[in-house]
Amino acid sequence: MPQRTDIHKVLIIGSGPIIIGQACEFDYSGTQACKALKKLGYEIVLVNSNPATIMTDPETADVTYIEPLNVERLEEIIAKERPDALLPNLGGQSGLNLCAELNKAGILDKYNVKVIGVQVDAIERGEDRIEFKHAMDKLGIEMARSEVAYSVEEALAIADKLDYPVVLRPAYTMGGAGGGLVYNKEELKTVCARGLQASLVGQVLVEESILGWEELELEVVRDKDNNMITVCFIENIDPLGVHTGDSFCAAPMLTISEECQKRLQEQAYKIVESVEVIGGTNVQFAHDPVTDRIIVIEINPRTSRSSALASKATGFPIALVSAMLATGLTLKDIPCGKYGTLDKYVPDGDYVVIKFARWAFEKFKGVEDKLGTQMRAVGEVMSIGKNYKEAFQKAIRSLETGRYGLGHAKNYDTMTKEELLHLLINPTSDRHFIMYEAIRKGATTEEIFDLTKVKTYFIEQMRELVEEEEEILKSKGHLPSDALLIQAKKDGFSDKYLSQLLEISEDEIRNHRISLGVEEAWEGVHVSGTKDSAYYYSTYNAGDRNPVSEDKPKIMILGGGPNRIGQGIEFDYCCVHAALALKKLGFETIIVNCNPETVSTDYDTSDKLYFEPLTLEDVLSIYKKEKPLGVIAQFGGQTPLNLAAELEKNGVKILGTAPAVIDLAEDRDLFRAMMEKLEIPMPESGMATTVDEALEIANKIGYPVMVRPSYVLGGRGMEVVYDDESMAGYMAAAVGVTPDRPILIDRFLNHATECEADAISDGTHAFVPAVMEHIELAGVHSGDSACILPSVHISDENVATIKEYTRKIAEEMHVRGLMNMQYAIENGKVYVLEANPRASRTVPLVSKVCNIRMVPLATDIITSELTGRPSPVPELKEQKIPYYGVKEAVFPFNMFPEVDPVLGPEMRSTGEVLGLSESYGEAFFKAQEAASLKLPLEGTVLISVNKKDKAEVVDVAKRFHEDGFKIIATGKTCDLLNESGIPAEKVKKLYEGRPNILDMITNGKIDLVVNSPAGKESVHDDSYLRKAAIKAKIPYMTTIAAAKATAEGIGYVKAHMEENNEVKSLQQMHSEIK
Questions:
Q1: Distance from the Cα of residue 335 to its chain's centroid
Q2: How far is 645 from 501, CA to CA, in rounded Å?
Q3: pLDDT band per the 50, 70, 90 thresholds, residue 351
Q4: DSSP string computed for 323-381
Q5: Residue 897 — pLDDT band, cuts 50, 70, 90?
Q6: Is the CB of residue 481 less than 8 Å from the CB of residue 467?
Q7: SS3 of residue 43 by DSSP
Q8: Which end of the chain is more exposed for a tag (fewer CB within 10 A), N or C?
Q9: Mean per-residue pLDDT for 602-610?
């Protein structure tokens, strides 16, 4: 094996926090690369700011740094670690951009670091729009006609030549950020200005519109000897005009001729060869079905979202192989059970894979549900079936949006054909559900094609499903004919959807089809580069080819399904650790999940992977086939918990905390009764199902109150209500949120510090590693609040009380495994807000900061009834942690410029970062820096706060004044500061004339914004201020609590600038815990 011997230590850059366009597929690729390189004997140094990842576990790499991803921090790490090589193409766009910046700054040369996998100039050739165009012209490969602009004027002139509409694409960005399709000069001016700002180099490409063409992708792998293979051909079913991250896709290509695929492959090989990437590259093409023109759109010389999808769709582990190739191995050196060696690989699976995206429009008020060239999706699912219909319907039920089939979504089935066709003019997240109802109302294939440009083949397939559904509906109230039921199952209709259509129970349908011998069978997808590893998918269209082993006792883990706001990578982290822990305990592990981006759906995380939707039908079938000793449901977030009770009813053994206990924690009356028995205080509350009940309770408790539906994750539908009028409005709007589940009303704790504790419990004892203190006050969702671990401002007495309450509750509820408790402290008194007897999103955070393996410990407890092992809890000791971790949430507001970025009880962050330091102030400063809001150490701070915060604003302003900042403030805030002896200059609000705040922000005169929203009591909307700060990339704080932490952080960093503290690795920090 001619692997490179001149390098021994490799630096891998992660992709940072999860944002729209860059999700956990990079945790998957980074973790795979670490595995591959470790196996080949290299030492690995890993840098990433995202604590919720498997790759930042101290076991994954040899040395791990959880630090902000920027040039300064990386130079410190390179200077200390002296790596021989840098592998940049596994950390998404962040990793690539950072490598390019390190190179430009001369740091790679200074410390003699070689870049492997992709050359630095290749990044430029792939990313810089001009360079890429030159390279394509040389190869004679056609691109969309376009020119580059460095100013709005240039862009206007180019657009006149090309003819509107035109597409604007900023260089060096990702997820289509800052770009868009414009139809006239006015639109061009706004979008172009935004694009020039978003681009790393102030460069925007103006190109002809190729709307409605087919969008086709190839995933190519190349080695140093120029051997190339195509791993996967992906066809986007939504035509050009919708970002590929939002597009619904199929692999293999279903409607593209062999001849056309060959042409695409030839061009892709030419491009990849000329760019000289080693490893995986994603090449995107557009094909005009009318003129047969093919043009290349762009390449990504790195592992990407599509390569995670291609890996899982074909069984070819692209990131793993890319890492091996980067060290100098070739495809011929890597053996494979199916093809001999990997250079002989061809994508020849006899199945269809579908990817469907998951959005979060409901979380952002004021955002139009509209898809375009800027990515909006927060997650995705992948499904595998024997034919298009089966895979398509499986994808729909994998999404967990409460839809188990394509029909009857929202109120679309009550609309006329004309209304539905009108809705299809602009692409939305519901486009395919609307098409389904339009076909039912008699729309022709041509009518739909003209509006959507979705190929007729896909519309015809959908038409057949509609016709079949209409046939099924004739049997309402009883079972359809056997022949029809069998056909429906072959075409992917789920039991649950059939039960909704026929209005009979799901059990009845399941029992009847089983009596007919219609059951799921499974086929394997072979994993390339392994002898005979495979993972499995179900089908009703083939015989069973799924060998079941009887060697070891088995346990099944239910995964978390698609990423979404409120349930992300943290839960996947828990599932992966549970699988690894179970292997060590001697069990065979089975994972069920349908998210292609994750480490849990990597073939070797578990002993056996089922790539399946998390629905009753699919999980029961697997349970029946594998006969595990039990199922673990507490690690995958809300997804498996929603299934737990139904599974238990059907005879499935749920290990760990019983589903009844989980229900107990959700039932406010039962939970309150238990708290009264334990003498633990809770905020006064009540439950209501009508407006009158709600008003009566609210007046009894006293406003303000917090209202929310029961059984939700991520604070869906939560609000703070201040008066009767708003309460009536909320109740009127809230009916749809919770069928047969009441609205919960609690007294809102004003000015309370929120904190939470994660515990490990064995049913009789519980252990709390540390208490987390939220920086934002009560009323901000715990997932969105920054938090400090271990706590700083909570008295020892309160910390002791919190630990004691947590233990009492865990013991009373007989929690077996993990549990998360939320508390609020008002005037020194601790109140319980809620108990979640399951893994929470803070588990990876607590595990890393406190150096405690929470999930393996919990797994040991959950399985102790099977293993007879003693509980590890009594052995766990309190530790003194000599440093602080600050978690900061990362928000997608830059993708939704029309949304007011104010924090509230509904969760809206997509990811998180961690700052670590011996001082709490510096940890906060680093967390802000990692969330790419680098705090200024000098300059001008703008302060404008609402009535509620006037009392505390003086302290904050004083800190900034002492730190040497110039203060400008609005109206009453300014008067107050001057009266208190703090020099502040007055500035006009937007409606008070000019020059005003907005002018100052736009002109770059302000370095930091402290602004708490005026809210309902003000006539004037002040959200423009916060939106402007985001647009200008100025750090902004919307709560006094965050402003205090900011002032402390800046003060600390300024005071200690002279001390040259060397950067510490996670392993080094852990060794200092006593």
A1: 34
A2: 23
A3: very high
A4: HHHHTT--GGGSEETTTEEGGG-----SSEEEEEEE--GGGSTT------SS---SEEE
A5: confident
A6: no
A7: strand
A8: C
A9: 95
Q: Which residue has the higher pLDDT, 497 or 132?
A: 497
Question: How many Å apart are CA 619 and CA 508, to the nearest integer?
Answer: 17
Kindly state the tokens that stand for 824. Answer: 């609020």
DSSP secondary structure string, 144-203? Answer: --EEEESSHHHHHHHHHHH-SSEEEEESS-STTTT-EEESSHHHHHHHHHHHHHHSTTS-
Rounded mean pLDDT of 474-497? 97
Average pLDDT value for residue range 795-808: 96
* Residue 88 to residue 94: CA distance in whole angstroms: 9
pLDDT digits 0-9 by tens, 64-121: 999 999 999 999 999 999 999 999 888 888 888 899 999 999 999 999 999 998 888 8
What pairing do the DSSP bridges indicate for beta strands 352-358 and 249-251? antiparallel
Task: Pull the structure tokens for residue 989.
Answer: 């609000």
Q: What pLDDT does 739 receive?
A: 44
Alpha-carbon span 948 to 535, nearest angstrom: 57
Do 221 and 229 touch, CB atoms closer than 8 A?
A: yes
Is residue 38 within 8 A of residue 74, CB to CB? The reply is no
Radius of gyration of the chain (CA): 28
Q: Are strands 985-987 and 966-970 parallel, antiparallel or unpaired?
A: parallel
Question: Among 539-548, 594-603, 1036-1045, which is the least confidently predicted range?
Answer: 1036-1045
Count of alpha carbons within 13 Å of 537, Cβ hemisphere only? Answer: 30
Give the H or E element holding residue 729: helix 724-734
- Tokens representing residue 151 in the block: 């100013």
- Report the pLDDT value the prediction gives residue 712, as an integer from 0 to 100: 60
Max distance between CA atoms of the chain, in angstroms, equals: 85
The CA-CA-CA angle for residues 619, 625, 629, to 5°, reads: 80
347 within 8 A of 318, measured Cβ to Cβ: no
Q: What is the mean pLDDT of the chain?
A: 92
- For residue 816, how many other CB atoms are within 10 A of its CB? 26
